[in-house]
Design a protein that fits this description.
- The complex is a heterodimer of chains A (370) and B (70).
- Chain A is globular and about 85 Å long.
- Chain A has one domain.
- With 370 residues, chain A is mostly helical.
- In chain A, 73% of the residues lie in helices and 0% in strands.
- The longest helix of chain A has 31 residues.
- Chain B has 70 residues and is mainly beta.
- Chain B has a single domain, classed as OB fold (Dihydrolipoamide Acetyltransferase, E2P).
- Chain B has no helices and eight strands.
- In chain B, the strands form two sheets. A four-stranded antiparallel sheet of chain B has the order 1-8-6-3, with no helix packed on it. Chain B has a four-stranded antiparallel sheet with strand order 5-4-2-7, with no helix packed on it.
- The N and C termini of chain B lie close together (4 Å).
- Classes of the chains: A mainly alpha (370), B mainly beta (70).
Amino acid sequence: MELLQGMWTSMAFDNLYWGNLVMWAIALTFVYLAIKKGFEPLLLLPIAFGILLVNLPSEIMTPGEGLLWRFYHYGEEWAIIPPLIFLGIGAMTDFGPVIANPKTLLLGAGAQGGVYVTFFGALALGFNIDQAAVIGIIGGADGPTTIFLASKLAPEMMGICAVAAYSYMALVPVIQPPVMKLLTTEAQRKIRMKSLRKVSKLEKIFFPIITVIVITLVVPDAAALMGMFCFGNLMRESGVVDRLSLTAQNELMNIVTIFLGISVGATMPAEVFLTTKVIGVFILGSVAFCCATACGIGLAHLMNLFLKEKINPLIGAAGVSAVPMAARVAHKVGSEADKKNYLLMHAMGPNVAGVIGTAVAAGMFLSVLK
Amino acid sequence: MANIESPMSGKVWKILVKVGDAIVEDDEVIILEALKMENPIFAPEDGVIKEINVKEGQQVTEGDVLVVLE
């Protein structure tokens, strides 16, 4: 009898409260979305499992002891994993469309307007300035950058902001088209763009080198992300270290994604997640995202006032850094207006520029707030 | 006689026509895969397929002639 009692107390039912059960339900919903709906499964599945683990009564997130705490501490708090992901993204990214049409760099920067609009919105809603910056950066639709900035400014917001950023990345095809159609006319969506010129290997090699020098001089706090990003890209374009480049794109990327996903999930125990703030983050995140889309399109309209060869304003919406989802959406909305209009490669310009833009925006927040 | 050129770089995913097929404007001729997206290429005008210059799975870049019409 005593033995049974001992077993009962050593079991952990006592430490559960209703909030944990709600989190189990959320975790299982994420598992469902990942498996059945294919919503960013590479991230959502590990995040969901992390949420489940941290909401079981265990020591798994106890500082200094727990396994997931160690993943979290060395990976995210030390801000190692997001730059490693940027290394992989750099190695995957073809800057050809940007080099062929450098004007698209402006569009990638323009969409970051949404980041700042949301920043002020979050401040107005009573988030503190560090939290507001992290919420704003969701508008860039860049998961690793959001996690990077959160780790430096507002670690308590990391989990929820990461989930918001990745959710909105998955929802790009749902959120963007209505905004895009609202802000463009049918005739503008039909604008066909002249074919991109061929870009030489030399240009592609110089691009990451020049980019890292310029950006680090102007925004030193973006160095961690941009340094890795440009290094990854140089490995790709150099053509002599395919093994390293492929490792950065595939194996290394997959490894850090496992650690990142499960430990980001583990930052969401019920007592942190189930607050009214979370709702605010999700609403502001979608506002951020719509504003970023609108800013990109607005800037494209503005540029068209001065350009002789008009750009299709839809590609401005691709300035958010969800690569290549946003470019695909621009292409799709364009081809609905004119099925022989192929905007995909043109939209990749602002899209990859948007990755740089969001990292720079994060660097600017860091230099002002840290 | 007209050429159907590739409007973007990508991989030839499916060829939907054979030499000798008669096609009309806006028929789907080839599907290109780029960035994991299937992009149908449409016939620019009516005609008969004279030559197909690419194979399924082949990488093409913008401006490559995919199909010759007559």
